[in-house]
Design a protein that fits this description.
Layout: H1 3-26, H2 72-78, E1 86-95, E2 112-119, E3 128-134, E4 141-143, E5 149-155, E6 158-166, E7 171-178, E8 183-189, E9 196-203, E10 214-217, E11 220-223, E12 229-235, E13 238-245, E14 252-258, E15 263-264, E16 270-272, E17 277-283, E18 293-299, E19 322-324, E20 329-335, E21 338-346, E22 349-360, E23 366-370, E24 372-374, E25 378-384, E26 395-399, H3 403-410, E27 431-435, E28 441-445, E29 455-460, E30 466-472, E31 477-482, E32 484-485, E33 491-496, E34 504-510, E35 513-514, E36 518-520, E37 526-531, E38 534-542, E39 545-555, E40 560-564, H4 569-573
Parallel strand pairs: 1-34, 2-8, 9-15, 9-16, 17-23, 25-31, 33-40
Antiparallel strand pairs: 1-38, 2-5, 3-4, 3-6, 6-7, 9-12, 10-11, 10-13, 13-14, 17-20, 18-19, 18-21, 21-22, 22-24, 25-28, 26-27, 26-29, 29-30, 30-32, 33-37, 34-35, 34-36, 38-39
């Protein structure tokens, strides 16, 4: 065969191969845009609109995951050259049903933000649960996404104590400081190479070792040996809280820094325990609702007691509240000497005086007698079920819409915007709870000297199937509450983005909680279901472009709210004109991808 014939044959093969490639990658679409390689989106088992599962022939399984592999048509809807994700932030500004209230919205000053992540080896995210175990957000639980990212935008300010637990059984504990209208961060590295070895010793004032002291560090507990020494072979690096307790001594609490992958020797970490002080609380007689009185023992003004011994020298969150029954007494051991504040709360009653300051002195019998009197301002009521009959055991909650402010005022603070030096809960002056008796009746205490505008009253049936919410003035009243069935009536927000022909990486955050990252199939709208009815604030970013700068949207039950969104050209076509795949993710405004394994390739 001559050279010219061979050249002609090669050109013919190339032309035929190029035509086949054009049909395969173009998917039959009449366009001259180069198409990238497909990117498998999280949750890609959801089929694109208009695609019948019966089409496309035999089902293929992925050789690595064993799951159903996407068909060519499915892969074409999620392939992308878009480098940065579309960041959508939704925050509930005011729940529905309170528009006509003269009060601030419920939890009106719960606007501190928390953002964090947990990752292990090679920066791989670890799904986890973050539980607030002490402080003003007590009982709140945050669930992370599949990459270990978590967050919230509606937290109360103040010091809080949290426990982080992964699905694999790893755990850690942290103290975090939250401030109004500010964002705090909590990022943990639970990889084996990051873990630190911590050892230390516990001694008394004379320098003698203390045997059998209980040491709790980063969620684990151990006892000191005969030499007063302890060790923790695996401690997550960061600011680690430690609590030490031994009968006859004052409890000690400290937060100290543990370096990444380092070892702390015994002679470098020594805790000195001081003699403990006991306090006996006695209750004179029962007034108001049945049940024990809640007593809170706090440092004066929220400051630390014995500040010369450390930044935080006593774990106040471990003893509060103290329960004292009528006609009885309760002994609190292991307190620290110094000035304290005592506050007592009981539904339908007030302490007289409401706040007592006293000094705890070692070697002395420290006692305090709690005297109650009927609350001069109270809320009495009766709860009726859906059938109109009184309900026993209904949960009744009275909440100040500005809980942080009310709690701070009850402690005698003049600056409620300041974070105190101790982990303190929301006091009953801010959030008060009780249950109904056999006749469906209840009584609660009102604090008009603290709350000028009023409260929100929330009542739920024992099984949670019926509920009612109303506003209450800070003046004595008698109310009758009729419960109504609780229905799932979430609304939907749809962001319409026209003109797209490839997948779009999306990162959605609702009330500070990140959802799993995903790739929105081509030509699909972003549909967000199950939103609580009310006023929402919508903010949308793409890279450095603020597409929607904080727009107020009303979401109604069982209705769709549509919003048009115009994307920048690189969010539609991607930054490359050569068809080379650009990974989704990367460094975006306000997004730290160092723990998620995302690439920031150009």
């Amino acid at each position: 065969m001559s050279a010219s014939k061979r050249l002609l044959l090669v050109l013919l093969v190339l032309l035929l191969g190029g035509g086949v490639a054009t049909i395969w990658f173009g998917g039959g679409r009449e366009t001259d845009r180069p198409s990238p390689k497909p990117v498998q989106a999280p949750g890609s088992s959801v089929r694109p609109k208009g695609l019948d599962a019966s089409q496309g022939g035999e089902t293929r399984l992925d050789s690595v995951t064993g799951l159903e592999a996407p068909t060519t048509e499915q892969a074409a809807t999620t392939q992308t050259t878009v480098k940065y994700p579309l960041e959508v932030h939704l925050d509930l500004a005011q729940p529905g049903g309170f528009e006509d209230s003269q009060l601030p919205p419920p939890r009106g000053d719960a606007n501190a933000r928390l953002k964090g992540s947990v990752h292990g080896s090679k920066g791989v995210g670890m799904p986890c649960t973050v539980t607030f175990t002490a402080g003003p957000n007590l009982g709140r639980v945050l669930q992370s996404d599949s990459e270990g990212r978590f967050g919230a935008s509606d937290l109360y300010q103040g010091l809080s104590f949290v426990r982080i637990e992964t699905l694999g059984g790893l755990s850690a504990e942290r103290e975090i400081s939250l401030r109004q209208l500010s964002q705090s961060e909590l990022n943990l590295d639970l990889s084996p190479r990051a873990a630190a070895y911590v050892s230390g010793s516990v001694k008394d004032l004379s320098g003698s070792p203390i045997e059998g002291a209980r040491v709790r560090m980063d969620g684990s507990t151990t006892l000191t040996d005969i030499n007063g020494e302890f060790e923790f072979p695996r401690v997550t690096p960061g600011k680690v809280p430690v609590t030490i307790e031994k009968h006859g001594f004052a409890r000690a609490y400290q937060v100290f820094h543990v370096a990444f992958g380092r070892a702390i020797a015994r002679d470098k970490l020594t805790f000195t325990l001081h003699p403990g002080v006991d306090l006996e609380l006695r209750l004179e007689a029962a007034v108001g609702s049945p049940g024990p009185v809640q007593v809170y023992i706090l440092p004066i003004g929220g400051r630390s007691v014995g500040t010369g011994l450390g930044a935080h020298t006593f774990p106040w969150h471990e003893i509060n509240p103290v329960l004292v029954h009528p006609g009885g007494s309760t002994l609190i051991e292991g307190l620290q000497e110094g000035h304290i504040t005592i506050l007592a709360f009981h539904p339908g009653a007030v302490a007289s005086p409401p706040l007592v300051n006293m000094k705890l002195i070692p070697g002395r019998k420290n006692q305090h007698l709690i005297r109650l009197r009927a609350a001069p301002t109270s809320l009495r009521g009766r709860v009726l079920g859906v059938d109109g009959k009184p309900i026993r055991g209904a949960r009744v909650r009275l909440e100040d819409p500005q809980g942080s402010f009310a709690s701070s005022r009850a402690m005698g603070q003049r600056r409620p915007d300041l974070v105190t030096g101790a982990i303190t809960p929301l006091l009953p002056a801010a959030v008060q709870e009780t249950t109904t008796d056999g006749a469906g009746r209840f009584i609660l205490t009102l604090f008009p000297q603290i709350t000028a505008k009023g409260y929100y009253l929330t009542v739920e049936s024992p099984d949670g199937s019926a509920r009612a919410v109303r506003s209450v003035a800070p003046a004595s009243a008698e109310v009758e509450v009729q419960l109504e069935p609780v229905e799932s009536r979430g609304g939907q927000l749809t962001l319409h983005m026209g003109g797209r022909y490839q997948g779009l990486p999306v990162e959605l955050t609702i009330n500070g909680k990140p959802e799993d990252p995903r790739i929105l199939p081509a030509e699909d709208d972003l549909e967000i279901d199950g939103l609580e009815p009310g006023m929402w604030r919508l903010e949308v970013w793409w890279h450095e472009d603020r597409l929607i700068p904080g727009k107020q949207l009303r979401i109604e039950a069982e209705r769709e709210t549509r919003e048009n969104l115009v994307l920048p050209l690189p969010a539609v076509e991607g930054p490359s004109a050569t068809g080379v795949l650009e990974p989704a993710g990367g460094k975006t405004k306000g997004l730290d991808t160092s723990d998620s394994g995302s690439s920031s390739g150009g």
